[in-house]
Amino acid sequence: MSGLKPSNVIIIHPDLGIGGAERLIIDVALALQNRGHRVAVYTSHRDKTHCFEEARDGTLDVRVRGNTIFPAHIFGRFHILMASLRQLHLTATLLTELGSRGSSTVKDKAAPGEEDQDDIFIVDQLPACVPILKTFGQPRKSHRQRILFYCHFPDQLLARRNEGGSLLRLAKILYRFPFDWFEGWAMSASDRVVANSKFSRGVVRDVFGTNKLGDVQVVYPCVDTNSEADAPQKEPEGALWDGKKILLSINRFERKKDMGLAIRAYNGLGAGKRKGTRLVIAGGYDNRIQENVQYHQELDNLAKDLGLRTATTKTVVSALSIPDDIDILFLLSVPTTFKNTLLAQSKLLLYTPINEHFGIVPVEAMLAGLPVLASNTGGPLETVVEGETGWLRDAHAVKEWTAVMDKVLYGMSQKEVDRMAAAGKARARREFSLTAMGDRLEEEISTMLFAERRPFRGWQQVFIALAVLGSILAVAVALLLRRF
User: Fold this and answer.
1) Are both 307 and 216 inside the same structural domain?
2) Directed axis angle between helix 166-187 and helix 198-208, to 10°?
3) Which of 362, 368, 423, 445 has a 20 to 30 Å separation from 182 between CA atoms?
4) What is the value of pTM for the model shown?
5) What is the pLDDT of residues 58-100, one digit of tens each?
6) C-alpha 286: how far from its chain's center?
7) Using CA atoms, how far apart are residues 19 and 449, in angstroms rounded to an integer?
8) Number of domains composing the chain
9) pLDDT in tens, 368-417
10) At a CB cut-off of 8 Å and minimum separation 6, what does 304 contact?
């Protein structure tokens, strides 16, 4: 432990839904709050019916700001523009609150001796607010102020640019260009940058270079080893679905997660070996997000085209009452308690994304004693140990995935199963606990506090860019006027 004194920690996150990024930032808040820091989470969206328990039950101080002027999107488009504008609106409100409350944003009144605590801003996913905080969020003389950016993955690599015709692709490239430049520029205003995995750190260095962001370190996401996932689960009326052997896939319903791989590999078992088994595809689903709706339908169509019977449910009650002959169950936005039950009673977790930035679900599975079959790329290379806590296979080799399923269902002794379960639990507790994450966060915050603030003189670049853009527009207007 670093011995870091308690600070005011202000976390800024775009949308507190249900997903790996949201689970990570909730755990960041919990890890620091458990160590005596005063934590507030600022977000532009929180639906109390579609978020983690800690974000709605009072465990964390969550404040919704920046959601009254700009919508989340315009006709399903311009998500990054609207997200940036919403975050800037949030930041303006936050800075107003900072000024009016003498920097004590976490509680209406600071307790005696707390008014001189340092301010730590932790920003993740979207860095639009960082230059504003750096420039206008000036610390008082009696304390320090620093900004830590927790990078999951460069946003510019997540944007889809190759969809549609040539004109649409060109429009997307032109639209994204200023945001791609802005991302690196805004991140460079932070005092320290950390990444969620060695894989992500390598990508960040490749995209932004080593000079702009300084010494990027890794702070792994975590699982709470004191949570229900690490405790014996109460089985609802005995084993799930009369003791069927469950193969489990948990991910958001996004195409890049490639849950279709799990369906194709499961189909490869054949009707005989599928008897007495069920594939459960569970995860984050939001009706507001068009891709979630479309991809769920695509997966359902894929399964039916292969001759597999499917069902879709949104509640635990309906999930438990599906007919016995259903091969694949789609469970939309699975509640945490039921997810833990699924992890405890399944035979194998199928983690299908390629080049996943980190991937918290494999760690959750290992903590529950569930072996993992994952793509041999990205974050799982740092979490899953081949042959010890699971298996790593090429995501394009469907037959290899089917072979591992077959082995787990029919080819492993109970001794082998127990050995792998124990190894997974031990690794999760040792490397990916809430305590380990808290230690690393405090180390990075301490390093940041005792170093000089990173200089930021980037505003002239914005002014130059605006001047160039203004000149181009002026020339364009002049040419149009001469033409007409």
Assistant:
1) no
2) 100
3) 445
4) 0.79
5) 999 999 999 999 999 888 788 888 999 999 999 999 999 987 7
6) 15
7) 30
8) 3
9) 999 999 999 999 999 999 999 999 999 999 999 999 999 999 999 999 99
10) 310
